[in-house]
Amino acid sequence: MNRRRVIATGIGGAVTGLAGCLGGSASEEALPDPVDLEGEFDTDHGMAIGPHGGANGQIFYRDADPRDEGNPAWFHTLVHSLFPYHFDRLDRDWEPVVVYVTDFSRVDYTVRQRDGAPRMPSPTAPETFADATDLVYVAESDVMGGMGPALHPFSDQEEARSFIDTHGGQMFDYEEIDRTLIEGIRQSEN
Fold first, then answer.
1. CA–CA distance, 61 with 97 (Å, rounded to integer)
2. How far apart are CA 188 and CA 190, in angstroms?
3. What is the rounded CA–CA span in Å between residue 56 and residue 10?
4. Confidence tier at 45 by pLDDT (50, 70, 90)
5. pLDDT grade, residue 115 (50/70/90)?
6. How far is C-alpha 147 from the geometric centre of its chain's CA atoms?
7. What is the pLDDT of residue 24?
8. CB proximity list for 127: less than 8 A, separation 6 or greater
9. Half-sphere exposure of 29 (CA within 13 A, CB side)
10. Could you tell me if 66 and 89 are in contact, meaning their C-beta atoms sit under 8 angstroms apart?
11. pLDDT (0 to 100) of residue 15
């Protein structure tokens, strides 16, 4: 078992133990699990998840199923899909239960050259996702995602710093991600 899997398993056990200590019924505390996005899912852009590279995401909302509008709750890019979609839903008073994104600290990844630029892989397995609010994000690096400049999420800040040392960029907390940051990242591809 590799180091990342051991860490992920330990974190999952600690969260489960903490939830039990905090009280409440299992149904009140239980969050939906991330789903495996391999092969079956298309994004709101009609693109398959996985082959394009970069972080993926999925959102679960309380009392509002995104599929009711014909839009999925899963995304192959954070900058071009997940965050713009999410900001729009927050404007409509949709309440997120949990937002999951790829956690590159849980993945043994290799940055590879593709289409003339370094690119991250695009893991789709459930264990590669983490709660988006618990992660730090690297923006403005030379590593692209599925549709160009991207956010690269990490649960381990030291790994994020190491990524920045190699590929450049800046680190942001989840709370710092807003429309202005996302629009700035999108415009940087022009």
1. 5
2. 5
3. 23
4. low
5. confident
6. 15
7. 41
8. 5, 8, 106
9. 12
10. yes
11. 41
Q: How far is 190 from 184, CA to CA, in rounded Å?
A: 10
35 DSSP assignment? P
What is the Cα–Cα distance from 34 to 59, expressed in whole angstroms? 9
Task: Report the DSSP beta bridge partners of residue 42.
Answer: 48
Q: Which three-class secondary structure state does DSSP give residue 106?
A: helix
CB distance 167 to 118 below 8 Å: yes
Tokens, residue 21? 């200590």
Q: Concatenated DSSP letters for 75-126?
A: ES-IIIIIHHHHHHHHHTTPEEEEEEEE-GGGS----EEETTEEE-----SG
With beta carbons less than 8 A apart as the criterion, state whether 58 and 100 touch: yes
Q: Which of 124, 106, 96, 120 is nearest to 34 (CA)?
A: 124
Cβ contacts of 24 within 8 Å, gap of 6 or more:
none
Band the pLDDT of 11: cuts 50, 70, 90.
very low
Percentage of the chain modeled with pLDDT above 70? 73
Q: What is the pTM of this model?
A: 0.80
51 Cβ contact list (under 8 Å, min separation 6): 122
Start-to-end CA span in the chain (Å): 42
Length of the chain: 190
Cβ atoms 78, 103 nearer than 8 A: no
